[in-house]
Amino acid sequence: MKWSRLPLGPIQTNCYILADDDKKCLIFDPGDEGEVLISWLRKRGLEPEAILLTHAHFDHIGAVDVIREHYKIPVYVHEKEAKWLMDPALNGSQFFNLIDPVRVKPADQFIAKEGELSIGKFSLEVLETPGHSPGSVSYYLREDGIIFSGDVLFQQSIGRTDLPGGDQKILLKTIHDKLLVLPENTLVLSGHGPETLIEDEMDSNPFLNGF
């Protein structure tokens, strides 16, 4: 599997593309600039099979409808945030003046619990990782040693908890119980900023010291 990162939109949210050798791919968190993403995919001859959302904050969902309608593919989100796609008060877009309120059509598939998720030839482990938002999930590829963590854990930082449904205590417990138990060489692909390693965050993330 090969992954690529495209920072999109005014907050430069990381959209990730995971591709196999057959040019099939999954799209994680298409936050904005749908036409830019379509052009990027077209130039590389990639064929998307699904959109996977780590959570439903506005900066992770802004291009969902453009991509879904262009490729006729399903959108996955945790059932706890099913209503967030359509509601600017829940997805947070009404609190930021730099963008218009974001409203996205309902998802096609809902994640209800942790476990295996198979889409075409792709197989991922879904981990429920709340705290940044109630329905945050991370997508783990055990064999490849990578996890798409959304806004749970960043390089030398953690996700904010001041938007609807955020809870710092839950977030810290999530990071400790779900992420820091992964192999130390696991590559964390975060919703913002560069990738990092579980080992590095265990050793030097200032928000995790003493937890």
Automatic annotation (TrEMBL):
What Pfam families does its record include?
Answer: Lactamase_B
- InterPro entries, per database record: MBL_Glyoxalase_II (IPR051453), Metallo-B-lactamas (IPR001279), RibonucZ/Hydroxyglut_hydro (IPR036866)
Output the Gene Ontology terms for molecular function: hydrolase activity; metal ion binding
Please give the cofactor(s) recorded in the UniProt entry for this protein.
Answer: Zn(2+)
* Residues of the Metallo-beta-lactamase domain: 12-192
Superkingdom is: Bacteria
Q: Does the keyword Zinc apply?
A: yes
Protein name stated in the entry: Glyoxylase-like metal-dependent hydrolase (Beta-lactamase superfamily II)
Species of provenance: Falsibacillus pallidus
Q: What is the lineage of its organism?
A: Bacteria, Bacillati, Bacillota, Bacilli, Bacillales
